[in-house]
Design goal:
Layout: E1 5-9, H1 24-39, E2 44-50, E3 56-68, H2 74-77, E4 85-96, H3 105-119, E5 126-130, H4 134-142, E6 146-147, E7 154-158
């Protein structure tokens, strides 16, 4: 993303205190827990920073994971080796600050997560997300994700569909 925002790895120099997206769980995680998870190497966090003010406009987290082959959609299973699980990147959280919502920044952060996953030196087959509600699920489906597995709101985007 160029111009108004830059996407950076979360660092101690970023001021997280003014961030508010309106979803208590996402705000609390970003303000109180994300640095612990990053330090423990449980997740990576990327922030969209407004270039002229330095304000954090949004963030997302990305981690490695695996999903059982049997949980994949049947049309995808046909194209995969018969290993018990499939390596994936997991989009854990994605939030846009209240003053930046409605500007397609969420799509920009999602695009960045897809790019990072596709370019990873560690092979991952897909980007997976557990959407928090119907609105979030509709957002991901709009961007090409499809449902899989037995859990409600569990979505996948095979990176073979993604061209960088």
């Amino acid at each position: 993303m160029t111009g108004r925002f830059s996407i950076e790895v979360l660092a101690n120099s970023h001021n997280r205190q003014g961030f508010y997206c309106g979803v208590e769980a996402l705000d609390r995680y970003f303000l109180q827990q994300v640095t612990q998870d990053v330090r423990r190497r449980a997740t990576a966090c990327y922030v969209a920073v407004e270039t002229d003010t330095g304000r954090i406009a949004g963030y997302y987290t990305l981690a490695a994971g695996g999903i059982p082959l049997k949980d994949m959609p049947e049309d995808i299973i046909k194209r995969l080796p018969r290993y018990p699980s499939v390596p994936v990147a997991r989009l854990g959280r994605l939030a846009i600050g209240s003053g930046f919502q409605g500007q397609k920044l969420g799509a920009g952060l999602l695009w960045d997560a897809l790019l990072r996953s596709a370019r990873s030196e560690v092979a991952v087959f897909a980007l997976v997300v557990d959407a928090k509600d119907d609105t979030a699920e509709n957002f991901y489906r709009h961007h090409g994700f499809v449902g899989f597995g037995s859990l409600h709101h569990q979505l996948i985007f095979p990176l073979t569909k993604f061209t960088t």
